[in-house]
């Protein structure tokens, strides 16, 4: 029997921000236990100087602790009340709340640590308000007022502080050329708004979602979804910008992609200020018309005021040898900071169009924030991961005139065109036999027409501050730091584990030497892969967030140019490993590493539109190059952590879109290169595998079910699990067929066996662990435990239960966690000892005596000094997951 369906209580909609999709019949909740206050800290430690307007985070709760309409209060450890907005984002099957999201503003008290408790929330002194009328939506934070038109070419009409318009005519811009290496014919496009939706309306946080496409004449392309986040008492607008590439990669070469505002300029040119953030706390401070360093000195007070960004004294008080000659001083109205690679940026300026650019300065890695304005107000504008997502640029033009243009270029026009074409001509692989033969040498699964980027996406985070005056250098550095790494609150590993979320894991445990040795191994392994990102410069617009698959020790490089050995693309659940590492440690570097990967794999490695919508692409030299398009790569389980830990709406969209990814089996035959006869898909009998395929689909359905979304998700999840368990051999039954309508697998009577080593290493073990904790079905449990017990069992044991040996299976170390799960469920000490033996033996992984230490390679053997270790990403991901789960499940038997 299933426990009560996990709909959101109708009362949850009374909580600000609750999703209407969660409105279902409210279950009766009795005997809720409540929960002690939960300590919170900033992920990156300390107390941040600035926030990007505010911050939003998620907290899990044990089953039965709270009803969905529970209110929460937030206090600093000193006892100060902090205004907080709370809403449920996940539910247990009994209707109690599983996850809550919380938002605070930069206007609230800021401390190093906080306490979240059940109770009445403090209200902001000036709540954010949202009104929609007359073809526009207006958000008032109490400090700034932002107007969103409901259609047209502007995503924002104006941002004002009181009566002063700081910025206006916010717009999305893009340009393309029809040839890659030379300009050819170039066209400019402007984003055209088709939809505006208010997703939250306060009191602490408001969210406005804007959708549309870029347009020029009759052509509309590059669909976008842009969310704007505004917080009570804040002068910031946080922006999450997502776009999908829907062009022809052989004809559409993007040579510019940005967001720009018009900034009214007030005051004399010498009272107009330009700021750029460099690396660390570095700031370039200049004026449009400089009055320092002149042949004649206007006076120390004048010079100091301009340098510090304050209004200069009345020119009548200056040395008149300067005052009478101000018109001879050039006004530098155009500036740009270009970060065209991860290792260097350049700043240039000019007096205006038609005149030479003069080099100002340069540096290594800019923080990604600029400012234009003066003592009566101005706009700070920036982009997160600015140097990591190169080629980027911050540009200011026209600052010497009445209006300046401030642009964040997510793809700099100075970088040349974006070339998304496939990297080779097919090499004669015209037939399936030729493609399969080539797979044997390069590990690349090539097929003509399959290496298309049509439908891949990218998400970029930006922040705009409408400031009342030019910020002092210290505050500007704080804004730059917040823009580069937005501060985030988090609950500790101990609480998250006690809440019972995300299956089998436990906080770091060094209580005995054997456990400490394993903890040392996984720390060294994580550190090595994390630091390879910088050593190997795995950065760039389409690449940042991913890591490489396999190493080439002869060349001392990762196999970036060898077929399927290049970019990892989530192969063997790298994402899961990184997220569980963070959950166990609470380490900031672990969080940021996993966060970057999730942003990448959720956008670049999967298709968001088109016939392959909902599918991901297997690992390869280009993220979309391989012809294996599979749900195992677009796996919702890899993204779900980030959604619940941050309540990120963009990831929520992606999770929801994956609910019907099983429809892709109607249009793409996964075994087309091996099939005899024509592909004739039957919606009632699709060739969906009950392991790798179903495990990925099940993660999407689980996420949708616990979020209170489309009820078909729960239906298919439960139907799939119960009908698989009813098969004679369950998850190893051969030749199964799947019904698209309800998620059931067709019944069979004869025992057959079909099993591969990849069957459970793409999230199936993890989703089943969670699912069995949510449903009360002994048949499903028994069949899954049988599978877990038998994978690493003897051939005789497999033969006895399933009628056949399972063959010479690979990845036995990875499946030690399956053995550990069976040991726990069966209370079998012999299995527990077997699990540890399987882990230590290290089949297809790292044996007990494996060295996780790295060696420095320098000099002429390499381009740059690097560290090498005997580690591969596949083995590391599965070793990490096996260690984590064996420690959590059978740690007492180590």
Automatic annotation (TrEMBL):
Compositionally biased tracts (Basic and acidic residues): 175-185
Region span, Disordered: 175-195
Signal peptide residue numbers: 1-25
Domain PcRGLX/YetA-like C-terminal alpha/alpha toroid residues, every copy: 486-893
InterPro entries: PcRGLX/YetA-like, PcRGLX/YetA_2nd, PcRGLX/YetA_3rd, PcRGLX_1st
Domain of life assignment: Bacteria
Keyword terms, alphabetized: Signal
Domain PcRGLX/YetA-like central beta-sandwich: start-end pairs: 128-480
The PcRGLX/YetA-like N-terminal RIFT barrel domain, residue ranges: 37-118
Identification of the protein by name: Tat pathway signal sequence domain protein
Species of the source: Nonomuraea phyllanthi
């Amino acid at each position: 029997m299933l426990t009560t369906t996990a709909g959101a209580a109708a009362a949850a909609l009374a909580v600000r921000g609750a999703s209407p999709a969660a409105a279902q019949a409210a279950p009766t909740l009795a005997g809720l236990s409540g929960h002690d206050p939960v300590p919170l800290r900033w992920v990156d430690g300390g107390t941040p100087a600035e926030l990007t307007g505010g911050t939003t985070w998620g907290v899990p709760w044990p089953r039965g602790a709270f009803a969905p309409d529970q209110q929460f209060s937030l206090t600093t450890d000193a006892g100060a009340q902090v205004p907080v907005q709370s809403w449920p984002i996940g539910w247990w099957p009994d209707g109690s709340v599983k996850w809550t999201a919380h938002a605070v503003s930069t206007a609230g008290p800021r401390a190093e640590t906080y306490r979240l408790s059940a109770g009445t929330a403090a209200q902001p002194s000036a709540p954010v308000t949202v009104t929609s009328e007359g073809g526009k939506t207006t958000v008032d934070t109490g400090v700034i007022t932002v107007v969103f038109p409901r259609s047209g070419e502007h995503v924002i009409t104006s941002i004002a502080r009181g009566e002063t318009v700081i910025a206006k005519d916010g717009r999305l811009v893009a340009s393309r050329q029809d040839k890659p290496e030379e300009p050819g014919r170039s066209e400019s496009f402007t984003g055209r708004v088709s939809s505006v939706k208010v997703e939250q309306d306060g009191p602490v946080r408001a969210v406005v979602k804007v959708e549309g496409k870029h347009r020029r004449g009759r052509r509309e392309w590059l669909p976008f979804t842009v969310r704007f986040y505004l917080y009570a008492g804040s002068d910031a607008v946080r922006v999450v910008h997502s776009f999908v590439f829907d062009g022809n990669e052989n004809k559409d070469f993007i040579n510019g992609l940005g967001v720009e505002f018009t900034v009214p300029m007030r005051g004399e040119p010498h009272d107009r200020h330009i700021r750029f953030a460099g690396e660390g706390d570095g700031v370039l401070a200049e004026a449009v018309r400089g009055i320092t360093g002149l042949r004649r000195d206007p006076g120390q007070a004048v010079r100091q005021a301009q340098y510090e960004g304050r209004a200069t004294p009345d020119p009548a008080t200056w040395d008149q040898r300067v005052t009478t000659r101000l018109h001879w001083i050039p006004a530098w109205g155009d500036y740009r900071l270009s970060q065209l690679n991860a290792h260097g940026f350049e700043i240039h300026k000019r007096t205006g169009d038609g005149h030479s650019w003069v080099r100002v300065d340069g540096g290594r890695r800019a923080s990604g924030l600029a400012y234009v304005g003066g003592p009566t107000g101005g706009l700070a504008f920036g982009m997160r991961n600015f140097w990591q997502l190169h080629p980027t640029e911050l540009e200011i033009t026209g600052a010497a005139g009445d209006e300046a243009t401030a642009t964040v270029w997510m793809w700099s026009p100075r970088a040349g065109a974006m070339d998304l074409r496939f990297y080779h001509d097919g090499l004669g692989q015209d037939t399936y036999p030729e493609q399969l033969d080539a797979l044997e040498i390069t590990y690349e699964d090539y097929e003509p027409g399959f290496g298309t980027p049509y439908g891949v996406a990218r998400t970029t985070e930006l922040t705009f501050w409408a400031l009342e005056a030019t910020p002092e250098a210290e505050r500007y550095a704080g804004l730059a730091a917040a823009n580069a790494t937005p501060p985030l609150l988090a609950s500790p590993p101990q609480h998250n584990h006690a809440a019972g979320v995300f299956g089998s894991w436990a906080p770091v445990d060094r209580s005995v030497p054997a456990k400490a040795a394993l903890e040392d191994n996984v720390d060294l392994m994580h550190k090595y892969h994390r630091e390879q990102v910088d050593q190997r410069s795995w950065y760039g617009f389409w690449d940042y967030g991913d890591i490489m698959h396999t190493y080439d020790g002869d060349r001392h490089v990762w196999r970036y140019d060898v077929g399927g050995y290049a970019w990892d693309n989530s192969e063997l659940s790298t994402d899961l490993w990184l997220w569980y590492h963070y959950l166990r440690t609470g380490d900031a570097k672990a969080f940021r590493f996993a966060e970057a990967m999730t942003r990448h794999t959720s956008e670049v490695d999967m298709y968001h539109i088109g016939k392959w919508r909902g599918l991901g692409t297997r690992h390869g030299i280009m993220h979309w190059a391989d012809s294996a398009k599979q749900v195992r790569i677009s796996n919702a389980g890899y993204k779900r952590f980030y959604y619940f830990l941050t309540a990120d709406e963009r990831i929520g969209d992606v999770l929801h879109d994956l609910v019907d990814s099983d429809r892709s089996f109607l249009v793409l035959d996964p075994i087309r290169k091996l099939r005899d006869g024509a592909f004739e898909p039957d919606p009632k009998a699709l060739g969906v595998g009950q392991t790798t395929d179903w495990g990925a689909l099940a993660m999407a359905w689980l996420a949708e079910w616990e979020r209170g979304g489309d009820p078909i998700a729960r239906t298919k999840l439960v139907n799939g699990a119960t009908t698989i368990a009813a098969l004679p051999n369950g998850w190893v039954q051969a030749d199964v067929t799947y019904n698209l309508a309800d998620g059931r697998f067709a019944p069979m009577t004869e025992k057959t066996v079909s099993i591969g080593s990849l069957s459970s290493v793409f999230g199936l073990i993890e989703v089943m662990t969670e699912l069995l904790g949510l449903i009360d079905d002994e048949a499903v449990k028994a069949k899954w435990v049988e599978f877990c017990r038998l994978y690493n069992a003897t051939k005789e044991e497999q033969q006895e239960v399933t009628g056949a040996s399972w063959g010479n299976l690979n990845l036995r170390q990875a499946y030690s966690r399956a053995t550990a799960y069976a040991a726990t469920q069966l209370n079998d000490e012999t299995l527990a000892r077997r699990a540890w033996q399987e882990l230590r033996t290290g089949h297809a992984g790292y044996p007990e005596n494996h060295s996780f230490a790295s060696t420095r390679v320098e000099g002429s053997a390499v381009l740059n000094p690097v560290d090498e270790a005997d580690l591969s990403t596949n083995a590391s991901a599965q070793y990490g997951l096996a260690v984590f789960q064996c420690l959590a499940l059978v740690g007492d038997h180590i």
